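Exercise 7. Given the encoded structure of a 158-residue chain, write a plausible sequence.
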C-alpha cells in the first residue's frame, strides 16, 4: 500500500489591498496543502499598526485584541480539525475542500463514484440485469483505477 504525504499549513495575514475608511484591513487565513494556497476570509479586520507580521496575529492587550487573538486561535484549530478529519476518513484533501467544509458550503460536492452510484440506483430497475452487471463492473474498475493511479478512493468532479 502506498501512502501520500500531505504538506499542510495555516497562517493569517492582512489583505492590504482592501483598506477600509477607518484604516482597517481584513484578516485572511491562508491554507496551504501540498504547495497550493487557498484563501479563507476570517471576516474580521484590524489596523496595520496592531498586526504582528512575524506571529501572524494582532498584538496588544486591549480587550478587543485579546478576543480577536482567541477567535483566530479557535479558527485555526477548526481548520486543523477539519484537515485531520479528512485525513482519517480518507477524503480528498485540498485547500478548496477544507475551505468549503470550514464555510459549510462543501456538503454536496459531486464525486465520480457518487455519480456512478446514483446512476446505478436510479437505473437499476429500468435496465436489464446484464446491462447493470456491466455498470457495476465499470464502477469496480474505476475504484481500482483511482486507487492505483491517484492513490484516492474517489475524485471530485469539477
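Solution.
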Amino acid at each position: 500500500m502506498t501512502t501520500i504525504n500531505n504538506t499542510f499549513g495555516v497562517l493569517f495575514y492582512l489583505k492590504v489591498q482592501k483598506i477600509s475608511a477607518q484604516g482597517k484591513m481584513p484578516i485572511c487565513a491562508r491554507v496551504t496543502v501540498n504547495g497550493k494556497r487557498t484563501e479563507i476570509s476570517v471576516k474580521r479586520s484590524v489596523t496595520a499598526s496592531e498586526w504582528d507580521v512575524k506571529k501572524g496575529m494582532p498584538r496588544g492587550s486591549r480587550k478587543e485584541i485579546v478576543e480577536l487573538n482567541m477567535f483566530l486561535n479557535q479558527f485555526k484549530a477548526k481548520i486543523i480539525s477539519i484537515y485531520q478529519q479528512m485525513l482519517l476518513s480518507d477524503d480528498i484533501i485540498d485547500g478548496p475542500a477544507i475551505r468549503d467544509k470550514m464555510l459549510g458550503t462543501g456538503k454536496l460536492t459531486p464525486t465520480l463514484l457518487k455519480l456512478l452510484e446514483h446512476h446505478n440506483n436510479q437505473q437499476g430497475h429500468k435496465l436489464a440485469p446484464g446491462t447493470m452487471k456491466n455498470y457495476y463492473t465499470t464502477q469496480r474498475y474505476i475504484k481500482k483505477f483511482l486507487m492505483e493511479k491517484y492513490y484516492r478512493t474517489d475524485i471530485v468532479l469539477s
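Remark. The chain has a mean pLDDT of 88. Students should compare their own answers with the one above.
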